[in-house]
Amino acid sequence: MKIQTLEIENFRNYDTLKVNFADGVNIFIGKNAQGKTNLLESIFYCCIGKSFKSCKDKELIKWDADFARVRMCTQKKYREVTVEARLFKASKKIIKVNNLPIKKMGELIGETNVVFFSPQELKLVKESPDERRKFMDIDISQNNKRYFYQLSRYEKILQNRNKLLKISQSLDAVKETIDIWDRALVTSAKLLATERQKFILQILPYAQKAHSYISGGKEELDIKYVCGCNVTLDDTFEEKMEKLLKKNLEKDFKLGYTSIGVHRDDIDIFLNGVEVKNFGSQGQQRTVALSLKLAELENMFNINGEYPILLLDDVFSELDSERQKRLIKFVGRTQTFITCTDEKEIKGVIYQIQGGKIKKIAQKD
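Predicted structure:
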C-alpha cells in the first residue's frame, strides 16, 4: 500500500500543495509550527475520515478560507484508491472514494489503512480506558467493516438505553421497555467483545517481538483484554450479560447511565508481570506504546497481505539513539512518513517544510 500523490488546499496552515511521495521512507524536517504534523494529519484524515486530534472538522480549515480540500491517491496491491475530502465552514463535509460520494463513514474505513504514532500516544498506556478502546476500535474497523457498523449500532443502542434511564420518572416505568434495549445491547456486545479479544490475541506476539527488539530484550511484555461486562466470552455470554443488566438496573436508574458493558472494556499491559500503567517508567510506557503500534503493522499485513501506511510524528525526540536505530530498521518494510526537527541518519527522501511550503532537499540511499 503506497500513497502516490497528495494534494492539499486550505488545510491548516497550507494554501496549496501537491507532492509525490517515495515508496519507502519520507522524512519531513523543519522547525516547530511549520506544518509537519499538519501534513500527517491530512493523510490520516483521508484514511479515517477524522483527525487524530480532538478537534472539529471546521478547525482543519485555514483560518482565512471557507473550505479545505485534501485529495490522496493510493496504490494498493490490486487497485488504485483515490480519496477526496472537502470540508466547509458553513455546511457538511463531502468525502468521495474513487469520485463517488460516500453516505456512511464505513465506506471509507479500510480503503487505505494507516497506523499513527506520536509522543502523545503515551496516553494509550497511561491514561483512561477510552484511549485503549479507541486503539482497538480504529485498528479492528480498518480490517472489519462489520465491526465498524456493529460498534456504531452498539453506541446508538447504549444512547437510547441511557436516555430511558434519565428521563423515566420511576424504576417501574423503566422496566416496561428496558428489555428491548437490553436484548439489542447484549447481541452487539457479544460481537464487539469477541472481535476485541481476538484482536489482542492476534497482536500479542507481534507486540512482544517489537518490544523485545526495541528494548534489547530486557523485559517481557504481556497484554490482556478486559471485558467491561465481567462475563466470560462463551456461549452463555448474552444470557449472563442480560442478567447483569437486570441486576444493576436499580443502580443504573439512580446513576442515569449504563454501568456495565463493552463501552467499559480495557486492556491490561504488563512488563515482567508488573502493570505498566501504574508502575512503569515513562521510558517503559513509551516503548510499550510504540510496540503496540508496530504490532498493528504486522497484524494488518497478516490480514490483508499488505502493510498499512505508517505515520511517525516527532517520535525520535522521545527515543535514545539506540532505540532510534532499532526503530529505523524495523519500519523499513512499509511506506513510512516521519517528522523531525533535523536530519537523522535515515535512508529515504528528505523534505524541508517551512510555513506550509514543502521542498525536496535530499535522498539518502
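Summary: Residues 122-305 form a domain with the Glutathione S-transferase Yfyf (Class Pi); Chain A, domain 2 fold (CATH 1.20.1050.90).
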